[in-house]
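Lab notebook, bench 4. The sequencing result for the construct came back, and we need a structural model before the next group meeting so we can plan mutations. Quick request posted to the team channel:

Model the 3D structure of this chain.
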Amino acid sequence: RLFGERYTLTNRSVQRWKALGNSLIKQVPLTDIARVEIRQQPGQAFYTAADVYLVGRDGDTLLLLEGVSRADIFRETILKARDARLQTEAAMSMIQARKPA
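Done. Here's the predicted structure in token form:
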């Protein structure tokens, strides 16, 4: 795409970038995400798309990803990445706690 935005999922965060160039608009750490909600707007069903809302523990929307194709699959991928990140951080904390001072 020439205009608009693109979304990137890494092993640490979900990012929203400008489609043209290397401008990061916003990123949300996976560990801050409590829920991922999907809301389909009129007209998006034809394109198998929906809006994805990343919601924090306090119920506030952390990031809105508009017009995501196959949003249900992307939602599951975000949740799996978040769970893996949380498990990795918990394991690293345990390892650090075992190290002698």
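The chain has a mean pLDDT of 93.
Will bring this to the meeting.
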